[in-house]
Amino acid sequence: MRILGIETSCDETGVAVFESGRGIVAEALSSQIALHAPYGGVVPELASRDHIAKLGPMLRELLAAAELDMNSLDAVAYTAGPGLIGALMVGGSLASSLAYGLGIPVVPVHHMEGHLLACMLENDAPEFPFLALLVSGGHSQLVRVAEHGDYSIVGETLDDAAGEAFDKVARLLSLPYPGGPALAALAEQGNPERFDFPRPLRNKGLDFSFSGLKTAVRIALQALTADAELDDATRADVAASFQAAVVDSLAGKCERALEATGMDRLVIAGGVGANRALRQRLAAMGERLGVRVYYPRPALCTDNGAMIAYAGWRRLAGGQSGAAPIVARPRWPLDELRPPQSAQPTGGGL
Ligand code: KG4
Ligand code: ZN
Question: Do 145 and 246 belong together in one domain?
Answer without folding.
Answer: yes
